[in-house]
Amino acid sequence: MDVCQSRKDNRTTPCRMTTPWTLEGYRGLPVLVVEDNPINIKMIRTQLKQLGIDMIHTAANGDEAVQLVRQNHYGLILMDCQMPVMDGYSATALIRAFEGQETHTPIVAVTAHALPGDREKCLEAGMDDYISKPVRLQRLLEALQCWLSPQQNIDAAVEESSAAQEPPEGETASTPQQGLTAPEALTAREPAHAAPPVDFGVIQGLLGVTLEELPLFSHLFVLFFTESGEKMEKIRLALEAKDVGQVCALSHALKSASGNVGALGLSRLCREMEMLSRSGAMDGLAQLYEQAEKEYERVKEALEQFL
């Protein structure tokens, strides 16, 4: 049986891996989502509502999260790690200091890094668990079942698990390439255009829906086009200004958003831009951006059928 370990009392408790919850079932404390990317916020709110969580608060950065925790009680906090103003690590430290020994709100890191050692870094910062983006519906369900207080849990629905609709493990945009330097990453995989621009199986796994039901979530695709179009233009301007820091931040955000709509090729190219710009190198970035532009157009064409 899978287990989760609470940092409050160092006890190990079993995770309740059962079946999806009813939409009407949960009557516990709100869930706080701390995330600066509008597409990611929209996606995780949609997922939470599908799992029966209707009381959802959001914060765009760590500072806002700390203020909300001081004003409200939460059953769970889903914490992004890389945000402007205040990151998730600092926010977690302040929340733990505020809570002291009296309370312990479970904090689950939700991050696009997914690199070796990231989970340990999150736990050392005071978080309780770690899940990587894009977040599959079944993995989110497991985190909720594991970390929400038993007093807040609800009746399970007698229906098949949405895990059957998940893509195989390791086929998401957040899968790390271990041991690669930035230049090596540029040639480690086949070009993005060798695969379909959108893996609809990934979207189905993220949302727990059938292909026929995807038009019901067209608002997610509309938001993706709006946000990603702006980020692509900002990356172009940052490249002209030779601002590698801005290229890195924008590529990181677009990588995560692309994964959430199953655009794995675009997400991979953004990841490579992020890695290369993080090393401080400009060489190769323009070429990657040109590839990303072409892949972005393919993604738009593939998703437009659901608008």
Automatic annotation (TrEMBL):
Q: What are the entry keywords?
A: ATP-binding, Cell membrane, Membrane, Nucleotide-binding, Phosphoprotein, Transmembrane, Transmembrane helix, Two-component regulatory system
What species does this protein belong to?
Heliomicrobium undosum
User: What SUPFAM superfamilies does its record include?
Assistant: CheY-like, Histidine-containing phosphotransfer domain, HPT domain
Q: Which residues carry this modification: Phosphohistidine?
A: H252
Under which name does UniProt file this protein? Stage 0 sporulation protein A homolog
From the Swiss-Prot or TrEMBL record, state where the protein is found.
Answer: Cell membrane
Domain named HPt is located at 213-306
The Gene Ontology biological process annotation of the record reads:
phosphorelay signal transduction system
Q: Which GO molecular function annotation, any one, does this entry have? A: ATP binding
Give the chief site where it resides: membrane
The entry's function note states:
May play the central regulatory role in sporulation. It may be an element of the effector pathway responsible for the activation of sporulation genes in response to nutritional stress. Spo0A may act in concert with spo0H (a sigma factor) to control the expression of some genes that are critical to the sporulation process.
Q: Which residues form the Response regulatory domain?
A: 30-148
> What PANTHER family is this protein classified in?
HYBRID SIGNAL TRANSDUCTION HISTIDINE KINASE J
**InterPro entries per record:** CheY-like_superfamily, HPT_dom_sf, Sig_transdc_His_kin_Hpt_dom, Sig_transdc_resp-reg_receiver
What Gene3D superfamilies does the entry give? 3.40.50.2300, HPT domain
How does the protein's chain sit in the membrane according to the entry? Multi-pass membrane protein
Top-rank taxon, per record: Bacteria
**Ranges for region Disordered:** 157-180
Q: Where on the chain is 4-aspartylphosphate found, per UniProt? A: D80
Q: Name one Pfam family in it.
A: Response_reg
- Choose one Gene Ontology CC annotation of this protein and give it: plasma membrane
